[in-house]
Design brief:
Rossmann fold, 6-stranded parallel β-sheet, 11 helices, 14 strands
């Protein structure tokens, strides 16, 4: 099969290779998926740059956890009725060497949920880390109906889905964005108010628009960089759910200020979601896809052999939405 892999850590253009690799076989409990799409995420880029130093100890790695395709074969213990089923896949390269940057991937059957016929393979590649992370951030701390939620970076991969999940569940959404195009995307997803996070006084703009009312919860894309400003707008007893802190990876916490606000800080990573939360996310994703309630933001579509360019785009941080590789 055609695949992309790396054998050493380093820059995408230096270490990602494209060529032939052995086609996998499904083990017991697994399905073999003929992939149509693969999507890199920031965590894939970080793995390639040695965020897990022992990742290559057992040999080369085929990157990417997300993708979509069709089940071609099943292993022992999996219903043969799954053969021919359209699926989206997640966690393909979590705790495993071989991900979705290939023509085929073999992975646990539970990690390949059904993809409704009306949903494209491009959209299917966006559902793993982005849509499931957003679902966890929104719903991990109870109902959001009637709540006011601030979603920073609302036009990004996770934020765009978070706006949709929360607004459709009855929350009032305030999002941050940095330009007119992203503001429009946030509003189309369901945001009632959008403020420009490039402006230093955006917390004051937010509070002026709410009449001084503070937000119940925050879903934050840059915990360390945004913390001081977020603390100006979150209410006592509020929740900050965060899934990234790339700009300030080791933030300093104003402990007493946060303690006197009685805040809950929730760190979210899709790889480690509890099984119950994962199953709920999968069920809600399928229902939303079937009813046409989820909009997907694909920023760029490239070919599999352009994987290094896809990684470069993710690292550059200027694309809003997912970068999808056609396999």
């Amino acid at each position: 099969m055609k695949a992309v892999w790396f054998e050493t850590f380093g820059k995408a253009g230096d270490v990602l290779r494209y060529g032939e690799r052995e086609k996998p076989e499904p083990a017991a409990g697994e399905v073999l998926v003929r992939l149509r799409t693969s999507a890199p995420n920031p965590s894939d880029v970080k793995k390639r740059m040695a965020s897990f130093p022992n990742l290559l100890d057992e040999g080369f790695v085929i990157p990417h956890s997300d993708g979509a395709g069709v089940i071609e074969a099943v292993g022992e213990g999996v219903s043969p009725n799954r053969t021919g089923e359209r699926v989206w896949v997640f966690n393909a390269q979590y705790g495993r060497r071989f991900g979705t940057a290939a023509e085929y991937v073999s992975l646990p059957s539970a990690h390949a949920p059904r993809l409704p016929d009306q949903t494209s393979f491009e959209a299917g590649a966006c559902l793993g880390i982005p849509a499931m992370t957003a679902h966890r951030c929104v719903f991990a701390d109870g109902s959001v109906a009637g709540r006011t939620i601030l979603i920073t970076g609302g036009a990004g991969r996770v934020g765009f889905y978070a706006i949709q999940w929360a607004s459709q569940a009855g929350a009032r959404i305030i999002a941050t964005a940095s330009n007119g195009e992203d503001e429009a995307a946030c509003r189309e997803a369901g945001a009632a108010l959008v403020v420009n996070h490039r402006q230093q006084d955006w917390p004051q703009t937010l509070l002026a628009a709410t009449g001084g009312g503070k937000v119940d919860r925050v879903i934050d894309v840059e915990f360390g960089a945004n913390l001081e400003k977020v603390l100006e707008v979150v209410r006592t007893g509020g929740v900050i759910a965060t899934y990234s802190s790339t700009q300030v990876p080791t933030p300093t916490l104003p402990f007493f200020r946060m303690m006197y606000l009685d805040l809950t800080i929730r760190m979210v990573i899709m790889y480690a979601m509890p099984e119950e939360a994962r199953e709920l996310a999968i069920a809600d994703i399928e229902a939303a896809l079937v009813s046409g309630r989820l909009t997907h933001r694909v920023a760029r579509t490239l070919l599999l052999d352009e994987c290094a360019e896809a990684h470069r785009l993710i690292e550059e941080g200027k694309v809003r939405g997912s970068v999808v590789l056609t396999v």
